[in-house]
Sequence to fold (288 residues):
Amino acid sequence: MKRSLLAADTIETYYPKTLLPELPGLGWRTFSQGTPGGPRPSESRAFEICFIDRGSVEWWINGQLYEAGPKSLFINKPGEWHGGNSGMVQPCEMYWLQFFFPPDGDLPGLREEVVTELKSIYEGMERRYFAASSQVEQLFEQLLNEQRQPGLLAESCARAIFQQILITSARDYLAQTRLEYSPGIKRVLGWMDKHLAEDAHSETLAELAAMSVAQFYKVFHQEVGLSPADYHVRQRLFIAKQRLRNSDTSITGIALELGFSSSQYFATVFKKFVGLTPGEYRHLRKKV
Fold:
């Protein structure tokens, strides 16, 4: 085990040698402040499953930018450069593991046809992040606990937990790719995306969805994975970061354009979700 303070705001527990030969790496990491991600290659044969427990990450994979929020899974494929020269790691806590499918197609404890199906799912993944099932966090913590206190039964128990993570993550991916929002939620999302600068009042959104306010909040969270308020502010900040990266518009101008009452309030919200002020974010983006 390597437990280290990587920087004043970063703590990591990393196991480069795990109980299982099919896992070349396993770990947990927390960032209390935003920081540039930096490029790094995956293990030559390894997939990487990351579970974002809290916060969010802004990540590049082979030149494409992704943003993954809390309680989501993020997949890196073998050999990919990820992070990117201007990738940002925002305040977050994440679990991760690396695994590979052996050349002979055999994973201990799983039938060959199951391994073939799993390999096909992971190799064919187009969406690189998606909502995680509620049990994923517990499974990662259980796997780390087995690694922390290895005993006579630890290897078998760790393998069973790893296989649950592997299968659950594959099922979560399939469920998300097949997900179709209900008509009411689809109308609300369309309205919110077109009216980012406007306040999204709960009564207005519920009326658009043709639901009571209580029912709307429940269904929205079930289908989207966020509250309406969190979704709205994250969409605003997503556009704000694009403006900060790709334009010379003043921070005040961006704030007012997106409906924030002042640049000070915009900076407060931005810092809360991104871990940097808008000025710091723009400076780091231009620096890296």
